[in-house]
Amino acid sequence: MTASELRKMFVDFFKEKGHKVIASASLMPENDPTVLFTTAGMHPLVPYLLGESHPQGRRLTSIQKCLRTGDIDEVGDDTHLTFFEMMGNWSLGDYFKEEVISMSFDFLTNVLNIPIERIAVTVFEGDLTVPKDTETEAIWKNKGLKQTQIYAYGREENWWGPPGQTGPCGPDTEIFYDMGKAKCSDHCGPACKCGKYVEIWNLVFMKFKREADGSFTEFKQKNVDTGMGLERVLTIFNGKTNVYDTELFIPVMTHLNNIIGELDAIMSIRDKRIICEHIRAVCFILGDTQKICPSNTEQGYILRRLIRRMIRLFKKAGINQNYLCDLAEVIIRQYQDAYPELAENQTFIKEQLQNEIDLFLKTLDMGLKKADQYLEKTDINTALSGELAFKLYDTYGFPIEFTCELARERGRSVDMESFREKFTAHQNKSREGAAEKFKGGLADHSMETARLHTATHLLNAALRKVLGDE
Ligand code: ATP
Ligand code: MG
Ligand code: MG
Ligand code: MG
């Protein structure tokens, strides 16, 4: 099965069941300054999930371009990508649990022909405030799933809703594909990261509203929100073990392997995967609306980090960075039918990529030299200082996770505590500067502050990840 066949199968299936097809929204959320990118198909539908009436009705389906910067460290494993396509269907106060589970089960077992014994599902196990979702469990059993295929988990795994905030929320049921490996332990289940279970579809039942006092009341409009990863389904359907072995990545991986072969270079499989994944994400970000260029803030900074990470991996293997533009061309060619914006914006994509390569190469060597000199002259057991990490960030444009990666490769760590202090002090300084600049224009000022907050928040999240805090 090809990706375009899968897209069509999904959309046709839900069209047949009375859903209207909506086009993928931009990767950049409109009217939502709290997030940098669209991370799920439900994102553009938020006003309608909250009760506004949608011009196309109460049953909708789409294939949405998504980008999850929070998954950046997982890239290189078998199933996590930063950019991916999410196939979804929605009920805006129309059908609920019974009907959506029936439709999903039908799609999985009759359209995709997945044997029932390869399916495992999870349900919300309940807690002091909300009881166990026995209804969902009963529906799954009714479909023929055995008790051993149904797992119950708590809020961490099976609850949807912004933590601590008021608004719609509810339990979900996640559908996993059993890759057929042996269980890694007696406790092995869908929440285990051993690779036996791959999550393919999430069905969220937005049934509750969280009130300001922390209690849950029934929401006036009961919605269903589902999301299924196209790359993962394609992997499973074609009997592969990872997304890179699907037609979506084979052309770019082959091209990269050819470059490596010709140059007699060496690159680990993980590094190759990161490059193939990031170049695709970069093409989609740049090709989306031509609104984002590499920069030091917000989406532009994410883009910059993705590009600079690839540049360094090329450098590490001794490959000329300009080859990245060839890889971009492979991606553009491959996706131009499904996503014509890539071909339409190809000049912009290649120009921006080349600019960023040229810009970073000016400081990369100096920064690397600086880092290596420091590491050579200091004791092997000490961490790279926060001061140097900040200098590498500020003067040489090294994203922090990049410096961490570099130090790790040399068996060293980074003094993150001290880096964090320096970074925060720097942020505070620019915030004061911004406040000064926007004196008298309150709206602009608060926007700017919000932006700086977002940047700090993102960095802190990245730091927590690097430090293993989350
Ligand atoms: P996981 O637990 O594997 O990280 P998730 O629970 O974070 O997935 P959801 O937010 O439920 O994912 O998103 C719905 C679907 O989108 C998932 O079931 C999966 O098929 C797909 N998906 C989620 N994250 C990724 C990713 N990083 N790369 C590819 N597909 C993804
Ligand atoms: Mg996830
Ligand atoms: Mg999950
Ligand atoms: Mg999920």
UniProtKB/TrEMBL annotation:
Gene Ontology terms for molecular function: alanine-tRNA ligase activity; aminoacyl-tRNA deacylase activity; ATP binding; catalytic activity, acting on a protein; transferase activity; tRNA binding; zinc ion binding
Domain Alanyl-transfer RNA synthetases family profile positions: 1-470
Entry EC no(s): 6.1.1.7
Primary localization class, coarse: cytoplasm
Record-level GO cellular component terms: cytosol
Cell compartment(s), UniProt: Cytoplasm
Broad class of enzyme this protein falls into: ligase
Cofactor notes: Binds 1 zinc ion per subunit.
Cofactor names: Zn(2+)
Entry keyword set: Aminoacyl-tRNA synthetase, ATP-binding, Cytoplasm, Ligase, Metal-binding, Nucleotide-binding, Protein biosynthesis, RNA-binding, tRNA-binding, Zinc
Annotated GO biological process: alanyl-tRNA aminoacylation
Catalyzed chemical reaction(s): tRNA(Ala) + L-alanine + ATP = L-alanyl-tRNA(Ala) + AMP + diphosphate
Residues annotated as signal peptide: none
Binding site for Zn(2+): 453, 457
Biological role stated in the UniProt entry: Catalyzes the attachment of alanine to tRNA(Ala) in a two-step reaction: alanine is first activated by ATP to form Ala-AMP and then transferred to the acceptor end of tRNA(Ala). Also edits incorrectly charged Ser-tRNA(Ala) and Gly-tRNA(Ala) via its editing domain.
Domains as described in the record: Consists of three domains; the N-terminal catalytic domain, the editing domain and the C-terminal C-Ala domain. The editing domain removes incorrectly charged amino acids, while the C-Ala domain, along with tRNA(Ala), serves as a bridge to cooperatively bring together the editing and aminoacylation centers thus stimulating deacylation of misacylated tRNAs.
Similarity remark: Belongs to the class-II aminoacyl-tRNA synthetase family.
Protein name per Swiss-Prot or TrEMBL: Alanine--tRNA ligase
Organism (species): Lacrimispora xylanisolvens
Part of the full-length chain shown: 1 to 470 of 595
